[in-house]
Amino acid sequence: MTAKNLWTPWRMEHVLGRAEKITGCLFEPPGDSTSDSEYLLLYRDSLTVVLLNRFPYANGHLLIAPRRHVADITDLSHRESQAIMAMLQQGCTILRRHLQPDGFNIGLNLGEVAGAGIADHLHFHVVPRWQGDHNFMTITADIRTIPEHISHTFTLLEPDFQQLLFGDK
């Protein structure tokens, strides 16, 4: 039997702690553009932002956050809460259309002690899951297997998120 290798070289800088540190807040990319491949920004409107996670647990791993810099869910306005929930639904719809996952993990960690890597700007993780995916890798070796390069996933998903803003113009 031939050994099979799983290669995810783009993660190495992150694993070794050498990844370039982002200045400012990850969820507040500079400028006003509604999308930007450099920042993996798929969508931005007046209330929400959607990014691809640069160091994902699975391909298509979305980060959905309020545009306003808030740390706690109780600090969201009713309008922001509604917009985030609507974007969680839209994100799942778009991921289903393009990646055909069998399910999703959707989570929010409030506070550093709860596991929030960026505790001062709340954000939801939307992680597509497939039957028989890489569960054992994470459990046995803290390794994630990502079958598609992140730039390809961005190119695949970005038009659908932009259509949410602009329709069929």
List keywords for this structure.
HIT family, subunit A, 4 helices, 30% helix, single chain, alpha+beta, globular
Protein described:
The chain is an alpha+beta fold and 169 residues long. It has a single domain (34-163), classed as 2-Layer Sandwich (HIT family, subunit A), CATH 3.30.428.10. The chain is built from 4 helices and 5 strands, in the order H-E-E-E-H-E-E-H-H. It has a 5-stranded antiparallel sheet with strand order 1-2-3-5-4. A hairpin with a 3-residue loop joins strand 1 (41-44) and strand 2 (48-52). The radius of gyration is 16 Å and the shape is globular.
Give a concise summary.
Helices cover 30% and strands 15% of the residues. It has helices at residues 12-15, 78-99, 135-141, 150-166, and strands at 41-44, 48-52, 62-66, 103-108, 124-129. α2 (78-99) packs across α4 (150-166).
Determine the strand fraction and express it as a percent band.
Answer: 15-25%
Q: How many domains is the backbone divided into?
A: 1
Write out the strand line-up for the largest beta sheet, numbering strands in chain order.
Answer: 1-2-3-5-4
Please state the structural category.
alpha+beta
Helix content: 25-40%
- What is the overall pLDDT average? 85
Q: Give the number of DSSP strands.
A: 5
Supply the CATH architecture: 2-Layer Sandwich
> Looking at this structure, what is the CATH superfamily?
HIT-like
How many H/I helices?
A: 4
What are the segments in which pLDDT stays under 50 over at least 5 consecutive residues? Answer: none
Distance between the termini: 54 Å
- The SSE order reads HEEEHEEHH
Radius of gyration: 16 Å
CATH topology: HIT family, subunit A
Q: How does the major sheet shape up?
A: 5 strands, antiparallel
- CATH domain class: Alpha Beta
- Give the CA-based shape: globular
